[in-house]
Amino acid sequence: MKEENMIITPWEVKGTIDYDKIIKDFGLSLIDEKLYKKLGKCMGNNLFLRRRIFFVHRDLDFILKELEKGNKFYLYNGRGPSGHTHLGHLITFLFAKQLQKAFDVKYLIQLTDDEKFLFKDDLSLEDVEKFTYENALDIIALGFDFERTKIISDLKYAKTMYKQALRVAKKLTFSTARAVFGFTNDTNVGSIFFTSMQSVPAFIESIKQKKKIPCLIPHAIDQDPHFRVARDVLPKLGYYKPASIQCKFLPGLGKGGKMSASEPDTAIFTIDTPKDIERKVMNAFTGGKDTEEEQKKLGGEPEICPVYQYYYFLFEEDDEKLKKRHDDCKKGKILCGECKKELAKRIKKFLAEHQKKREKAKKVIEKFMLED
Amino acid sequence: MKEENMIITPWEVKGTIDYDKIIKDFGLSLIDEKLYKKLGKCMGNNLFLRRRIFFVHRDLDFILKELEKGNKFYLYNGRGPSGHTHLGHLITFLFAKQLQKAFDVKYLIQLTDDEKFLFKDDLSLEDVEKFTYENALDIIALGFDFERTKIISDLKYAKTMYKQALRVAKKLTFSTARAVFGFTNDTNVGSIFFTSMQSVPAFIESIKQKKKIPCLIPHAIDQDPHFRVARDVLPKLGYYKPASIQCKFLPGLGKGGKMSASEPDTAIFTIDTPKDIERKVMNAFTGGKDTEEEQKKLGGEPEICPVYQYYYFLFEEDDEKLKKRHDDCKKGKILCGECKKELAKRIKKFLAEHQKKREKAKKVIEKFMLED
């Protein structure tokens, strides 16, 4: 999808995100109150749900109905290992962890190293293999158990993956792939094939367990095109359409847009040092005024402020405190400097813990990886 | 390439084959007398060479020059396991065996089960896996040793193959693939990717041995488009262009065209019973006249006769005896019935032996297969 300032594909997100337009263009369903309540029964007062960070879906109602019938789903999502993990990447994994806990289900995580090699000119196989390892550490550090949670590297699990991807590929014409992803004559033939690999984890549990198992994919909204293809093809192979629950992007620390690994100073990576964090947060774009005087007089604009969004998405669990921060900002009772300082403190605390767990993950990573 | 009656692509060969046109359109080089002599020094008085069954090449002179410098090549070819092996399929393997013996080189055989699954609507993964096994038996039965000869199933060796194929795929645009293979909007995305897999054995030895090793591919002329692509891409990855020596098709027993697995009564399969062979040969189209009287008076036309071609390609080693058969036919001194009866006898003898060796191959097949 390309729209003046907004570009949103599985490989590029740029410009000011117009979620209403995406929902309409992609044909997504908003999660309605009834569905939120139903989810809430199992998940409790979940931050990502009550703040509408996960806000649209496909067939989530089907997943819950099957569950009631005793047909348990499994979870699947993943990430393209084109660089180090940043805070924005953690959201789908954190939410999947909460879903897994609430529903006691199996969870597959796909690291699409093949995709990133194919789509990024400057990445070698060695690069994507390295980032697969690094990204897996971040996921494990969030606190999964290797009994119910498995990580797939497309390259390391290719014997299993390629064979199943062929079944999808055989049912997917070039013209469909082009229409969905906007391929051109210059697109390489691997990129054209790739979505077949991304669809495999959405039915591989059905193969392993030799029965139809529903699959729920918690993912960021830019990945929807892949699963639109999967929803088209999988029923032709005898599986359920994968369902999804989709989230908004944590904004970058620059002006507008997604946090982007390609602009390293607008993203906070899980391996960043306290100094990095301090610098990036303190240099962030905000919704504040140019001077202290103006700020105190006119107030700030939290609705356009990425710093506020970090509290909203990840760093203020307490709704009342969040509201106070919002209102105080608008009234000019809080200055950007303070607000950033507090955020930097919280991020540093979170990442110090995370980095310890990340180190420990090195000892167990092999237990998580599916390998042929 | 599509030309009135002639269709020749890696997936379809139909109509009367115009080799001159193919050579010109594909840009192939005829093997000249100097090259034949040079090959003959190592291969002796080889039937496939002296009868010009292998007749065109790419960079064969390069292969021989590198050999003189002490840079030994390896052999690679293969087959798409879409059905049982027929006599026409054996030619490239038999010639590779002779090349291997003459030059004492390693030989890789690729069974493109993935290709056949992708390109043939009616074939399942189970079908191509079965034919991979069956075809491998036929190859092993020709008398290879598993020390120097390895068989690749793309599916079974996918972990190794897919990773390397991605490197090729990244350098190959859709427009190039479409121009070479004639893909349309309806082509499935797996078929578009596939040639990347076929190029891998042409450089995999260079990876394993960590130095540039020349690769010679003895193959039937219809496979040239794949290796044209490989010759374009491999130098970009730091490897030699693969060289080739290419052969004509053993004709089918029907009127004109290649022996085709899709028309089972025009092809003699390695698993055919003596009764099958008898029936197929005795029902073959020939270059003979309608009646015995006419034949005796006007003589036959060996140049359009598939029965004669079977002697020429595989079942008459002695050039003088072949010439006598040719001349006797033209003079009407031999009738089609006799000629067919004798051919059926020779094929039955050959296949009775082959089938015994094929049974024995079942015990060693695992030693030949490369598997991840």
Give a structural overview.
The structure is a homodimer of 372-residue chains. Chain A is of the alpha/beta class. Helix content of chain A is 50%, strand content 12%. The first copy, chain A, contains 18 helices and 11 strands. Chain A has an 8-stranded mixed beta sheet with strand order 4-5-10-9-6-7-8-11, with helices on both faces. In chain A, a hairpin with a 2-residue loop joins strand 2 and strand 3 (12-14). In chain A, helix 6 crosses helix 7 (125-141), helix 10 (189-199) packs across helix 12 (224-233) and helix 13 runs antiparallel to helix 17. The two termini of chain A are 36 Å apart. The mean pLDDT of chain A is 95.
Count of distinct strands of chain A? 11
**What distance lies between the first and last C-alpha atoms of chain A, to the nearest angstrom?**
36 Å
What string gives the helices and strands of chain A in order? EEEHEHHEHEHEHHEHHHHEHEHHHHHHE
Strand order of the largest sheet of chain A: 4-5-10-9-6-7-8-11
Oligomer: homodimer
Tell me about the largest β-sheet of chain A.
Answer: 8 strands, mixed
What is the residue-averaged pLDDT of chain A? 95
Radius of gyration of chain A: 21 Å
> What is the percent of helical residues of chain A?
40-55%
Low-confidence stretches of chain A: none
Please tell me what the overall shape of chain A is: globular
Count of runs of 4 or more consecutive helical residues of chain A: 18
What portion of the residues of chain A fall into strands of 2 or more residues?
5-15%
Largest interface: A-B, 38 and 38 residues
Class computed from helices, strands and strand pairing of chain A: alpha/beta
